[in-house]
Write a structure and sequence with these properties.
Layout (H helix, E strand, L loop, with lengths): L8 H4 L5 H24 L3 H7 L5 E6 L6 H5 L6 E6 L9 H13 L4 E7 L3 H8 L5 H5 L1 H9 L1 H4 L4 H21 L2 H8 L5 E8 L4 E4 L10
Parallel strand pairs: 1-2, 1-3, 3-4
Antiparallel strand pairs: 4-5
The protein binds cobalt (II) ion.
Amino acid sequence: MAEVPGRDLAAGWNRISSMDMHKITTLLENNRQWAARVKDTDPGFFERLAAQQHPKYLWIGCSDSRVPANQITGLVPGEVFVHRNVANIAHPTDVNLMSVLEYAVDVLQVEHVLVVGHYGCGGVRAALQGRLPGIADFWLEPVRELARRHRKTLAGLEGRELEDKVCELNVTSQVRALANSGIVQNAWERKQKLTIHGWVYRLDDGILQDLGETRTGPEE
Ligand code: CO
């Protein structure tokens, strides 16, 4: 393993400062309080969820900590199946995403797939600026490819305006890619009710916007 300057790796994990330890303990305390509150409001909540999950929604969004699926849509545990990655990329060669999609559509039978991008996405910005080292740069290549493909639409845009337009194009292109996937096509073929939506979230005011790129069947 590579040396990390200024850190004794052998002893490193024992050296969590008391401040950090306090923060982590707070999370566990928060959890106990939350569980008690939920149980108070709905005594059968955890027993019900432990028995099975029946989410109607699959959320495919960015890993950005400011875009938590449940909170911004007012959904409680059990209501949304979630996949998040940097820059909400839905690539058909991504076995992680595709197995999530397959399980959500075939087994859980979700009725809606929500592809959710967000303005001010650091992943999209990094893709356009080409400033990330190593594997992240490889991961973001589809965004760069997308920008190349849409260079006419993007001509004349720069800075934040350019980034935000790419965020939108990224979402709409993911919606189309998912609609064309075998998993979704097969679901529609067997008349399963399934709609794919493209949304974008604004960090500045917490508002989700529908980009109007909705797919409900193979004919579109
Ligand atoms: Co992002």
